[in-house]
Batch of 3 targets.
Target 1
Amino acid sequence: MINSYFIQDQLLSLRHKREKLCLIINSHLLSNVGNEIQCMNVGQQLSEKLIMVPQQERSVQAALIFSEMIRSSTTEFVGLNRIEILFNRELAVDPLRLLLANAKEKTILALWPGHFDPKIGLTYAQPSHSEYRFYKPSDINNLLIIDIETQIL
């Protein structure tokens, strides 16, 4: 269970960072974290917009549409649920880099659908899976990552 006061305090600590991104690990739903956070179902919203884009243009348009979704938020804090669509290889985006690029103007709180070990790194899927992603500790050392199960910060 996410303690909303804890999360809000952590998000406030990001205010002076260049990229204001917080990844939540081992949580399936982002809710009840405060009225200042607008939550988005990325999978639903992005797929609804991409369905109108010809398939051969989706890799070019995906990052632009995602960025517009973030910019259109009326709040300083944006919560992102169901980000699995960002790992789709056909979209040709690096999910973590896309989140970081959009976490400069808005503070982003994203549910990461993978695993985190501070000694090993951040992953999504298994190495044999086509959407597998791995970020080594040096790639993520400046990120705020909260693992709900192990209480690792």
Note: Strands lie at 21-25, 37-41, 77-81, 107-112, 115-117, 121-124, 133-135, 144-147.
Target 2
Amino acid sequence: LFVTNRAQNTGNITQETTVADGPVKFETVLKFQMSNYKERVFFTITSQEEWQKVWGEMQANVTPLPVLPIVDFSKEMVVLVFQGTQSNAGYSIEVTRVEKKDGVIGVRVKEVSPGAGCFTAQVITAPVHIVKMPKVDAKFEYDIKYEKMECR
């Protein structure tokens, strides 16, 4: 569901990390509200070249382009979850858990939207959460949990 692997084989020697079944450690690289991706899409990236490309695409409206966060693609990979264009600032997306089971990496994603009583800035947003994790060769599945923010 909504999964794109944009990684390309660049011919570089890399080390796949052996990850046991169970929770997989991940670390937030960046989380912000104004990406340039209009649709909900999830990427796994395993090369510096593709990381630079996607970074430029998602920051296309920012001048000068922010510095690319450092990722050691010989040992790590990047998972990006984009929520797509939203009508106001009350939306967010977040990777909350990564787990390996039977050769599959499950990524739990929480999407939050504002409830009826919430006051939000009337600005178009496109939330994204970027995490890095050990580099693995596995199928990725995304489980999206939707939540409404309660406001009074």
Note: DSSP finds one helix and nine strands in the chain.
Target 3
Amino acid sequence: EGTLLEVGAPADLYLRPAQKVRGDFLGTANFISAQIERSGNQPWDEMSVTTPLGPFAARRSEEWRPSTTGELFFRPELVELLDERVARNGANESSGVVERVTFLGTSPDVIVRCGEIPVRVRAHPSRVLQSGKQVTFRVAPESCIVFSA
């Protein structure tokens, strides 16, 4: 009794899900509660949101309905762990403490605890991460999508 939600290229379906249910179904993802500061008028327009992780710029999903709250979505492999020497500008950046590292063979699966929020990260396999270490990360605006809450 299923319904066909969308047809498209595999990369598009995975990286730019039009609907929250598909984004959740097609792999591991982070969903963070968000307060909407500015929303675009059309799907994939830029939005500004405030989250428990800080301010983020993101893209409006196709299923977005005007609201003051939403959910920020991004894939773990699109999270960039920043070097201590990298200049930071605050936008789409946050920090937390490495809670767990599980090596999967192709990449470490990392849980970064940002207060009450666990953020899943897939790090480069050469990256050495230890539990308890403070890290800062960034997610590119084009890799973030806002869905209706």
Note: The beta strands are 30-38, 46-51, 54-60, 69-74, 79-81, 93-103, 108-114, 117-122, 134-139, 145-148.
